[in-house]
Amino acid sequence: MIKLHDLHFKPFISEDEIQATVQHMVTAIADDLQDEVPVFVGILNGSFMFVSDFVKKYPKPCEVTFIKLASYEGLKSTDDIQRLVGLTQDLTGRTVVILEDIIDSGKTLAEVHRIFKNENVKELKIATLFYKPEAYKKDFKLHYVGMEIPNKFIVGYGLDYDGLGRDLPAIYQLKTTQHMTNFVLFGPPGAGKGTQAEFLKEKYSLVHISTGDVFRFNIKNETALGMLAKSYMDKGELVPDQVTIDMLNAEVEKNADAKGFIFDGFPRTNAQAEALDKLMDQKDSQINAMIALEVDDEVLVQRLLERGKTSGRADDADENIIRNRIKEYYKKTAILKDYYSAQDKYYGVDGVGSIEDITERLSAVIDSL
Ligand code: AMP
């Protein structure tokens, strides 16, 4: 993720992918032009990096020149194209290939055609590294297109946002949602996730989603989802992934304006973790951390039996079911430690002590994110 002026941008097209695309275009154009010595005309400022890489890869003699046009102001393409530096040499009878970094509305291209109308070139071909088909409003033929991209604002590889970003060797895309803080509160049943989440959601203005609570709410209201979940929950087993993932997606969608989420009891399997990453990605966001409360098994059993005296939860009342839930946790869920460790996002926190002490330990991790 990068920040330019006031906006955040996320990686979109890698350096390697760009270079492969440039090579592809070079090969196609060199094949078509055979022994013709073309004049490549770059459109400044945006195309300088593309033109430089392109001609370095071009296998035969060629000439290079530039014209300088300006159309962008901030994030919007303006109607008014300014010709800042026009053609400075006679191109009569020459084969000209325009090298554009990006074609979106096509206004710049219209200006290019105006410039070349009376130049008597032998042939005028248009080559663009990026092309936004959804934004293109003109009929000019595009002879060579490197890559079609969606109609999103991008920076890097010559393209800028108010002057910044041209120097980046890869392409980044504007993030459309504000910055969010999302973390997974992790730990075995009885570790205190629910209790801690209540404090943390207030402190950091986050939305707390506990999949167990949502299931229990559905069971209480005798919904179809509740009836389905109940058969698994009563035995201390996990509800099937697809049911849980669909439910979680719906809960996140209900809170479209959230500043971030505390996920409690989710994900519990690799499939759920992958689904969560995908969901966050769609929101232009990500999971920042998995914060795990670490508590010894016997302490958990005692805590849950104690809670069962007042919680009314069937799965807290029976020691065998409690032990089965803890077993399920280590069998299916603890592998998620590896999933988040691999992304450098795992934080273990000692879950034994007073509620306040544990909140403080968790806050220290969140503040460091
Ligand atoms: P909890 O309140 O987190 O201890 O969850 C209670 C029960 O709800 C679990 O034992 C599961 O049966 C079910 N459950 C909660 N979250 C999930 C999940 N992410 N995947 C599958 N089952 C879940």
TrEMBL record:
Keyword Transferase: yes
Any Pfam family: ADK
Primary enzyme class: transferase
Domain Phosphoribosyltransferase: 17-161
Entry-linked PROSITE patterns: ADENYLATE_KINASE
Positions of AMP binding: 211, 216, 237-239, 265-268, 272, 313, 325
Entry EC number(s): 2.7.4.3
InterPro entries named in the record: Adenyl_kin_sub (IPR006259), Adenylat/UMP-CMP_kin (IPR000850), Adenylat_kinase_CS (IPR033690), Hxn_phspho_trans (IPR005904), P-loop_NTPase (IPR027417), PRTase-like (IPR029057), PRTase_dom (IPR000836)
Catalytic activity: AMP + ATP = 2 ADP
Binding annotation for ATP: 190-195, 307, 353
SUPFAM superfamilies xrefs: P-loop containing nucleoside triphosphate hydrolases, PRTase-like
Pathway per the UniProt entry: Purine metabolism; AMP biosynthesis via salvage pathway; AMP from ADP: step 1/1
Key words, A-Z: ATP-binding, Cytoplasm, Kinase, Magnesium, Metal-binding, Nucleotide biosynthesis, Nucleotide-binding, Transferase
Gene Ontology MF terms in the entry: kinase activity
Compartment annotation: Cytoplasm
Stretches for region NMP: 210-239
Quaternary context: Monomer.
Cited function: Catalyzes the reversible transfer of the terminal phosphate group between ATP and AMP. Plays an important role in cellular energy homeostasis and in adenine nucleotide metabolism.
Similarity section: Belongs to the adenylate kinase family.
Domain comment as written in the entry: Consists of three domains, a large central CORE domain and two small peripheral domains, NMPbind and LID, which undergo movements during catalysis. The LID domain closes over the site of phosphoryl transfer upon ATP binding. Assembling and dissambling the active center during each catalytic cycle provides an effective means to prevent ATP hydrolysis.
Protein name, as recorded: Adenylate kinase
Species annotation: Meridianimaribacter flavus
Lineage of the species this protein comes from: Bacteria, Pseudomonadati, Bacteroidota, Flavobacteriia, Flavobacteriales
